[in-house]
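#struct-pred

JT: dropping the chains for the assembly here, can someone run the whole complex?
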Amino acid sequence: MTVASYARDAGGGPGETEPRRADVKKERRDWRQFVGFVPAAILFGVFFIAPLCLIVVYSFWITKNYELIPDFTTANYKTILTTGTYVRTFGKTVLIALLATVAALALAFPFCYWLVRYVPKRLQRVGLLLVILPFWTSYLLRVYAWVAILGDKGAINSMLKALGLTKDPIRLFLYDNPGVFIVLVYLYFPFAALTLYASLERFDWRLLHAAVDLGATPMRAIANTLLPQMRLALVTAGIFVFIPILGEYLAPSAIGGTHGVMMGNLVANFFSGYLLPLGSAASVLIAMVITIVLIVFRRSLDTKEIYV
Amino acid sequence: MSDDLQAVNPRARLFRIILSFYGVGIYIFLFAPIAVMILLSFNTSRVVGFPMAGFTTDWYLRLANDTVILKALEKSLIVAFWVTVLSTVIGTMAAFPLVRANIKNRGGVRVFITLPIMMPGLLIGVAILVLATNVLHIQPSLYTAIIGQTVLATPFVILVVSSRLEALDRNMERAAADLGANGLQRIVFVVLPLIYPGIIAGALIALTLSLDEFIVTNFIIGADQTLPIYIYNQLKFGITPEVNALATLMLLGTLAVAGVTLGALRLVKVLASVGGRRPGGSVVTKKPNRLEEPASAEV
Amino acid sequence: MSRISEVKLSRRSFVGGALMLGAASPFLLSACGKAEEAGGGGGSGGGGGTVNWLTWSDHYSQDQLAKVADTTKITGQPKLFSDNADALLQIKQTGSQFDQVSGDALWVKKYMDEGLIEPFDLAEIKSSSQLFPMATKFEFLNDPKGALGYPFSWSTVQIYYNPDKVKTPPTSWESLTDPMYKGLIVAENIPTDLMAIAGIATGAKGSPYAQTPDQISSSSGFLNALKPNVVKLASQNNEIVTMMASGEAAIGISNLGTDVRVKDAGGPELKSAYPPEGTIGFIDSEMIVAKGANKALVKPFLDAMQQSEWIVANFTTNWRPLFNQKAAEALTADPKTADNAKRLFMTDPDKALQMTLKGPAQDQQAYTEAFNKVFGA
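RK: done, full complex below.
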């Protein structure tokens, strides 16, 4: 905008009663600025919002013998919220997601700190690339590779046996919750690491020096200058780990056995048995939790802070 | 940087050493499953486990003859191509109003745009399947799979392009406007060239996402198979080292493409700094006067 | 979810990204070109085509598909499933995409009732002359309009255990709930069948697939008691075999021949226990999907796939009986396989009719819900 147009748009002086030609023109032009949204709106409207609405609708219906019958009942929600197994699964899913998030952040933060401070700038890029490299292998195989590590004949047990430390294999992790936990942390660690790195990289390290100069120990310096600034990034990283884990079902199905079942498995079972209303109700509950978390932490989605 | 801290506090040195071990440890943690996966692709026994029964490259050879895998690869590439094109176009178009239009609740729109990424893939897959079969009465097919993956990929493109767009210096456009360019011309000749790295990055993300996408695709692709679906079937229904061999090759393939690209990138950098300015606003050269040197060298 | 990671790199690999796309595109295009060649070559190679087949992994082998494609120019394209209910749903939802589907005994009738398959004249498939005559007369595979399915294989479901790890062998279904078997059992993840077994175990009168709500709740009780002993619910028999071979499971609820397969896979020698309460079993068959786009190719495809040589190969890989009489004769003639052929009822198909056949539950929904309530968490 040139200075002249800026002054023009800034608002009328005293005595201006009718909207000026420029303002009318601007109002008429207003809709044109949203043109770019149209294809995305169609895409998301038809193939994201509509299906989800359908799921919400289905959550109030019932099935009989593979046929969906329109109805309006909250029975499905009641079933999910009152059946012991389902409630336990839901609670366990949230718990595992929280624990895995904390673990991923706790692992990622020192790692990123090391990468930013102690690794030469040129190598930092390589270091990041190495963190992302596992993503270039198939997600499925990364999960199933853990069976080969944690299993009875897996790498860990074979090594222990070879070293003579154990006679029988240790069935600690595979086909149970701890195994699922480890695999989830493994899968989502890079998300946490990359988000934290982006923020850590922009931190002004002279603040640490200043703190130390003023007498703080290195630990205290970090706690009082670095962590407060990282808060936003920590929250964002947490969200990028927590929310996807809520919907995970492949990892628990491969590693979890009968005891490491998560909500995603339950939903998958419902849907493959054509119990659409129950599956929909469960999905709506998960989706609600996710949406609430997103809205509460919406500031952390502000891209300017993270990506640029 | 960290060195002066060491001068101040000797414990910092120990701290640094511990952290370095930790960093390396993390890398080991990250690569252990991949190493195992690659190792087991050479196992003679079909049973997953150690110690390995023997060493063989048979599985790799069997891959070459496997028409099912080649067909799956073909389908994967077709889907990936269309998903990349669609999501990049739609996403770039949507990034402009997100950044520039007068929206009352931009944060809300942002949350909405991130929703498809955050919703469990399981839910999205089933929802689209149900919509397709029960409401629209269209069969699951390659086309529905393409659309489904586009829904997942577009938010990423929007986020990346919009962040690049936000950081853009609007003065370029104002200058162009002053010189007489209209809106469309400004976008095509000024903005797009300035943000194209973001668009490319977004396209790349869409491509990578599509190639490895399993959950949503599995629900809505019908009888066809993409590579991840093939791998899933093999893993679930009979783990053979063949799948490990396939994954190892895929990894090597990606590494090769990346390596070639970085090498070519070096070449382009050298050529560009000799030839002149590069689009992107700032000229990234170490010696600002380089433009003059070749001329003087020739003279 | 390999996506979010790349976003952070955008700062660093702008131009690199551009070049990667550039480098990738010739690769992409050439791959498409190559694929077109391959696809075109296969298609134009004289009257061939593809049969899209929804099936289990033990119904074919890669070699078999390749050879059949060579001779008949028909390429079988299998997609795997684990549960009949799952398959039925897929066929229902995908319309014309699948041409052939495999299914268990009583499920065939459900497919027909839903109009998903079409009857055919068994005599038109020449290899059917190799079948045991009794196999062509199964009343659940036959309809006034023709045969509903081409009979393939059968098996009972029994208990296999590793005598080294299981000191007190299980003696019945009920005994499996004993805490001493904690974490040792692996079974196939088929809710309907597990509920049926539970029904048999709790002595439910009538068909295990038509339990009353009371019976369903005692079956749930049985499954609840069984749950701590189950280490994993496997997607297919293959997984059960691998788990028992590697020692991760010591008791398997599985098909005939699992012991031979486990031995082949380098595992221990298993023993079998036949539960006195009775058990379920399956007879499976190949069906033609009514709306299949290429359904006309299914009959010649089946003719090639069901030749006795392939059935012999199938038996020596999977070790459960099949209905091809010519194959049975070949197997008994060969001294290497004669013992197993006899022991595993390859020559005795009448046994198949003595089992309680697998099928859909009368109240499928109640079964699935009851199962999920137990194994949901």
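JT: nice. Confidence is low (pLDDT under 50) at residues 1-13, 304-308 of chain A. The radius of gyration of chain A is 26 Å.
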